Amino acid sequence: xALKSSLRTIIYETEKQIQSVRFASVxxxxxxxxxxxxxxxxxxxxHLLDQILLGFANVAPFAKRVHSFYAEYEGESGxxxxxxxxxxxxxxxxxxxxxxxxxxxxxxxxxxVCSPAFVPYFIFRDPRDVVVSHVFYxxxxxxxxxxxxxxxxxxxxxxxxxxxxxxxxxxxxxxPDIAGRFAPYLDWLDQPEVxxxxxxxxxxxxxxxxxxxxxxxLARTPLHATRQLILNSLEASINPKKSPTFRSGKTGEWKKHxxxxxxxxxxxxxxxxxxxxxxxxxxxx
Length: 285
Hints:
The protein has one domain (12-22, 31-277): P-loop containing nucleotide triphosphate hydrolases (Rossmann fold). It has 14 helices and five strands. The chain has helices at 2-22, 46-54, 83-92, 107-113, 127-141, 148-153, 157-166, 178-182, 199-204, 206-218, 227-236, 254-257, 260-270, 273-277; strands at 35-40, 69-71, 98-102, 118-124, 195-198. The chain is globular.
């Protein structure tokens, strides 16, 4: 494992040096190149956003692969990481890196991410589709997930969906209800330095969404390429087949799976979450 990690680091740094040579004629921005940071709520298009941000490597000296991925919970054990671990990870990132994270909006992290060193994006998805996606992921796609065996033990999809909505309050591995899982991320929406992205926009109106993603970087760092070339690079970088957890690029799939009971328990625990995220105007859906 250590050897594999060392080799990956060597490859990564070598590619960054090649990028530096490739774009040697492009002057560095006044405050140096930023780190591109894709923050995502789990099951909300993490890999899709990674691919898009890596598309900037075709028009500027950014890294051609993700530097590293950080999650607030360890995947196999479900153990919650300490806030200082997130800060240490952020501190290790360098100019021109592209990084990805399920990162809580805790005050120190906000202060770091909203500094000139970063150009941050936050992608999220309709929480109703999130819980459906979570069932498929934990049950059938990730056998090493801390809750995989438990989900497998449940009698059917409806029972598993109940758990994805309500969480497991008595579990040793922390797993709050859907509102509790979103809560630590919501403050990213209040940071003007962080561009909020609805996953659905990348499916239903990709051109407009990619334009916003491009403009967010250009407002911080002018690029010596035409806008059309930049947009073409971002579009060409998208490849769902290279996403290890991609199941469906559709939106509104929850309508196929939610029973009236699921709607009721979701409304009971989620409160105004859908309104806060812009998916409903009222709670009468």
